[in-house]
Structures are given as structure tokens and as C-alpha cells.
Amino acid sequence: MPTLSFCIGIIGNVVSMLLLASPIRTFWKVVKKKSTGDFKGVPYITSLLSSSLWTLYGLLKPGGFLIMTVNGGGTIMQVIYITIFLIYAPREKKIKTATLAVIFDVGFLGTVFAITLLAMHKLSLRLTFLGIICAGLSIVVYASPLLVMRIVVKTKSVEYMPFSLSFFLFLNAGVWSFYSVLIKDIYMGVPNAIGFVLGSAQVILYVIYKNKSRSNRSMDVMEEDGSVHLVKQSIIEMRAYDQDGDFDDGGDKVMINDPILNRGTSLPKSSINRQYNSLKLIRTVSLGPYDVFPNWSDDAISNVKRNFYADHP
């Protein structure tokens, strides 16, 4: 009958493979566009180094089959990701990524393998040496979202912290923390415990700022649409403005208190208002006596003209 640790390890393998498969969508877009865009290759180089070392750790550790399988699969996937990245990256980025891959995934990795297998002969010493290095790398990988968490708190937006990724990081670290307790492995336990705490923090931040992000997006949309509301307000004013400077709608005075329309007044002045004022000025200058005083008779207007010229010879 399978032990509890074996069952938890199987669950950990499934969760980890789902987490490792998360960049597939990203790289599918890279292949379709034939460009890496703004993506960087450093995370995949670091993950390849970590997965490779954990694979060796699982091979050497008695009962470490499940550690070896999940990290062996991760190593293969990271190699595929880096290969695709190098194919479609621009020349400058390609050279930089390839250089880092050679330094860390060939030079550093080969050195650690050589020291572990050739310079150390006791299994306990090998596991201690590898365990410390693997734990350090895992802590770095789990600590990498700290920058994103800082951005979330600063901007009050979870736009750059996808919930699925945060949730799987939290779940993955939790499962492997439990597994490490069952098999009494401190080198797995410490980094995964730290990852569990950071993953929990990410999930909490997402819950806190999820609704605020939506309201911020709504405000952005309203600000973008402010010019449209300003146009609507200007049109209403142009249609309803009477000669006394009041709003008139068929003889009844009305006030426009729509908050959405009034929001537009806080935005930069639109050229529509300037054009409308210019049209009013031009129209006022070009008005004839019959336009200004439509109810006056010809005799009344003639008397006004006669009196004006008499006062202003």
C-alpha cells in the first residue's frame, strides 16, 4: 500500500508539472509572432540550473525518486523554453542569453556536478553540499515575486500578478513543504516553507487589491471617455442655451446636473468649446437688427438708427 509521503509526492509532481507548463502559452505566442518581444530569458536559465541540481539530488538521495522525476521533467521543459527563446530572440538579446546560459547552465552546473561526484566520496557529504546549493537557488526563485508584490502594493493593482501563477506557486510550495516534513528533509523544507509564506502573501494581496484594480480600470475608462461626455455636454449646451445665458428646453428652465457629464468639466478644455465660443462671437458680430430684435417693426428700427446717428455724428 502506498505510503502517505508517496501520495503527497505524486500530488506534488502533478502540481509542479502544471506550474512548469504555465509558460507554454507564452512560448506559443513567441513562435506565432516569431519574436520574444519584451520577455527575458534569465528566469528560464535560473530554473534550468535549479531543476538540474535537484534532479542530481533526487538521484543520489535514497527514496528520492519523486524528487528526481519532477525535476527531471522540469529540466527538459526549461531546455525547450531556452531553445525557443534563443531561436526567436533579437541578436543582442540572443547573445546575452546564450552567454548567461553557458556560464550558469554549463560552467557552474558542470563545476557543481564535478565537485559532487569526483571530489566528494561520502553520500552524506554529497547530499549536504547539493542540498545547501539547491535550497539557496530555490529561495532565490521563490523570492523573485517580491518585486511584483511591491508593485502591487504601490499601484494597488494585480494586473502584473496573475492569480493562477500565484495560486500554483502557493499550492506547489505547500505540497512540497508537507512532503519534506514527512521524509524529514530540511533542504527541501526550508525553501518550500519560505515559498509557501510568500505564495500565501501573494494570494492575500490578490484578494485585497482585486476589487481595487477593477475600480481603477473603471476610473481609467471613465477618464478616457471624459472627452466623449464633454462633447455630449457641449452639444446639449449648444442646443439649449438661450439668449439670457440660461438653459432653456421648450420654455422651461432646466439644469444639467448629470455627474457623468459634469465630470468632463474637470478635464482639459476641449477645442469644441473654443470653436463654439468663436462661432458665437462671429455670429454676434454678423447679426442684423432683425436678428437681434425680431419683434420690432421697421419704423422702430429706423427711429433707433436716426437717434444713434444723431448722438454720434
Automatic annotation (TrEMBL):
Pfam families assigned to the protein according to its UniProt record, in alphabetical order: MtN3_slv
InterPro entries for the chain: SWEET (IPR047664), SWEET_rpt (IPR004316)
Keyword Membrane recorded: yes
Subcellular location: Cell membrane; Endomembrane system
Residues that span the membrane, as ranges: 6-28, 40-59, 65-88, 100-121, 127-148, 160-180, 186-209
GO-annotated biological processes: protein homooligomerization
Major subcellular site: membrane
Key words of the record: Membrane, Repeat, Sugar transport, Transmembrane, Transmembrane helix, Transport
Any GO MF annotation of the entry: sugar transmembrane transporter activity
Taxonomic superkingdom: Eukaryota
Membrane topology of the entry: Multi-pass membrane protein
GO cellular component, as recorded: endomembrane system; plasma membrane
Function: Mediates both low-affinity uptake and efflux of sugar across the membrane.
Family of the protein in this entry: Belongs to the SWEET sugar transporter family.
Protein name, entry field: Bidirectional sugar transporter SWEET
Organism: Dipteronia dyeriana
